[in-house]
Amino acid sequence: MSIGGREQRTGIATFNTTTNKTTTIVNNYYGFYFNCVNDLVVDSKGDIWFTDPMYSWFNALVDTPPQLPTALISSSSGSQTYRFRPSTGAVTVVDDSMVQPNGIAMPPDEKTLYIAESGAVSGTWDYNLTTIHGSRFNHTAKRGVYAFTINDAPNGSGRYLTNRHPIYLTQDRTPDGLKVAANGYVVTASGKGVNVVDPVGTLLVRIQTNFSVQNYVWTGREYDDLWIMGRGGVQRVQWNLTGQVLK
What pLDDT, in 10s, does the model give residues 44-65? Predict the structure, then answer.
């Protein structure tokens, strides 16, 4: 992909708000370009966990066909989730069971990793960029939130995941913008709304919107303001469900 005459690849970068300079910290897996880095979460050890679905290719946002494992709606495994350790530069695959891994989050105790599965929105494998691209919605395909147990490696080299299990199936479109509140409740956007579920997936409340929600963020001195953003709107919610304090 060329931006301003310079090659750019999907990845993770830092942005200095004082100098307006960006620095890429990771944009490939042993030389293979990522497909479409979508969302990330940083743990207390400084490791960055991120998802890599395939939407950039489906929607003709990149000019290089996928180089890493991918999946279609009917696949049993495919697109991957990674852990990047800035202190060593190591990039590790932590899961390849998702069709289209999307949002990713963990609670304050860092015992669980939640990943949103958006496999119901998928596209074509056609490698001819002259064809019509896009991401179709299949209501019967994967569209839920999964929980994993986070384990520490005995030698201290990192963390790995076990015990994958579903906790929630969205009632509207696919889950997006996944986050975990300070009390452990899981919050995810789905279609025209934001859902709050407990750690075992029981739906507690839904914030209805008149636009398709793509992401949201907690703000305010007490982290009790929720700003919701999406296609065609921005909404503010003031409630007593607080977000995690940024480290």
Answer: 999 999 999 987 777 777 777 7
- Please report, for the chain, the start and end positions of each structural domain, with discontinuous segments joined by +: 33-211
How confident is the model at residue 19, as a pLDDT? 93
Q: Which CATH architecture has domain 33-211?
A: 6 Propeller (2.120)
- Per the CB < 8 A criterion, the answer to whether 98 and 81 are in contact is yes
The upper half-sphere exposure of residue 76, i.e. CA atoms within 13 Å in the direction of its Cβ, equals: 0
Q: Are 167 and 201 in contact (CB under 8 A)?
A: yes
Tens of pLDDT, residues 133-166: 566 777 788 889 999 999 998 887 789 999 999 9
| Maximal CA-CA distance, the chain | 50
- How would DSSP label each residue in 52-98? E-SHHHHTT--SS---S----TT-SS-SEEEEEETTTTEEEEEE---
- Starting at the edge strand found earlier in the chain, the sheet holding 144-152 runs 101-105, 112-117, 144-152, 159-169
On whether the CB atoms of residues 66 and 57 are closer than 8 A, the answer is: yes
Neighbouring CB atoms inside 10 A of 2's CB total 8
What 3-state class would DSSP assign to 137?
strand
Q: Which of 169, 184, 242, 178 lies closest to 213, judged by CA? A: 178
DSSP label of 42: E
Q: How many CB atoms lie within 10 A of CB 104?
A: 20
| CA distances for 246 relative to 128, 181, 185, angstroms | 43, 12, 17
Q: How far apart are CA 101 and CA 70, in angstroms?
A: 10
